[in-house]
Specification:
Elements: E1 2-8, E2 11-16, E3 19-25, E4 30-36, E5 40-45, E6 49-52, H1 56-68, E7 76-80, H2 86-91, E8 98-102, H3 106-111, H4 117-125, E9 128-130, E10 138-146, E11 157-166, H5 174-185, E12 190-195, E13 205-210, H6 221-224, H7 235-240, H8 246-251
Parallel strand pairs: 7-8, 7-10, 8-9, 10-11
Antiparallel strand pairs: 1-2, 3-4, 4-5, 5-6, 11-13, 12-13
């Protein structure tokens, strides 16, 4: 049996699974958890968005430690539309921070505990679950999905604020991607793509957008070198994740800012 991970309207991946382990329907969403010989547990949200148990740590570590080791003064953090509570687990490695989790369906967030009870149960207790946004400003905003056209998180950032979010593969319809990302990059001083090159899937592409700080020039090696219990992130992976091939640089000239 196979399940589909939709990367783009023109691209999808198929994953072989063996059996269904769990299903939960919330007010707005549905989640199913399957077992797989290769990937471990596989969660599917609304028949399209996929989370692999074997890769939730990779996603969380890149989304968390890249910005946190760039700006060592981050205190207030907003996580948007994420079911990956390993993000909260990684954030807990830093002291004196406040984490808001913006979710539209708390039942589904709690159900995702089935995917990784070890990390998720404790992490859920360490975050503030919110359903709407106020006027609060954040040092870091983590968006665990593709940016939507109506999204505008720039006004919610502090003076040294950073946003990280997921991106569709840059090599796919690069002209269209450049136009989409150009509408966002115009507001930021630094706007750079980074990639988890050892991911099993094609959806581990991210954007680092910053009002002031540079993810390579301003990395704090004293902090990044000492992060414990990671499976993917290192200072070297942090720095190398921002290197892009020449054709990407040319296709996105004027969009990416470094």
């Amino acid at each position: 049996m196979w399940v589909v991970n939709i990367i783009d309207e023109n691209l999808r991946e198929e994953l072989k699974i063996t059996s269904k382990l769990f299903e939960k329907k919330g007010e707005k969403n549905k989640i199913e958890v399957f077992d797989s010989e290769i990937f471990g547990k596989v969660a599917i949200l609304n028949d399209s968005r996929t989370m692999l148990h074997s890769e939730i740590a990779l996603d969380a570590e890149m989304l968390v430690h890249v910005p946190m080791c760039t700006n060592t003064e981050i205190k207030s953090i907003l996580v948007v539309d994420s079911l990956n509570l390993k993000i909260a687990s990684e954030l807990k490695k830093y002291r004196d921070i406040e984490i808001d989790f913006l979710v539209e369906d708390r039942d589904i967030l709690e159900a995702i505990n089935y995917l990784d009870r070890e990390h998720f149960s404790d992490a859920l207790k360490s975050v503030n679950i919110i359903e709407t946004l106020g006027e609060k400003k954040y040092d870091l905003i983590i968006i665990d999905r593709i940016l939507l056209e109506e999204d505008n998180f720039y006004p919610m950032l502090t003076d040294k604020g950073i946003v990280v979010f997921k991106s569709k593969p840059l090599a796919l319809q690069s002209c269209t991607r450049a136009e989409e990302l150009g509408k966002v990059s115009k507001d930021f001083y630094i706007f750079m793509p980074f990639t988890a090159s050892y991911s099993l899937g094609m959806d581990k592409n991210y954007i680092f957008a910053s009002k002031r700080l540079h993810p390579q020039s301003d990395i704090n090696l004293q902090k990044s070198d000492l992060i414990e219990d990671t499976t993917y992130y290192t200072s070297e992976m942090h720095l190398s994740s921002f290197y892009q091939p020449k054709f990407i640089k040319e296709s996105f000239r004027g969009v990416f800012k470094n």
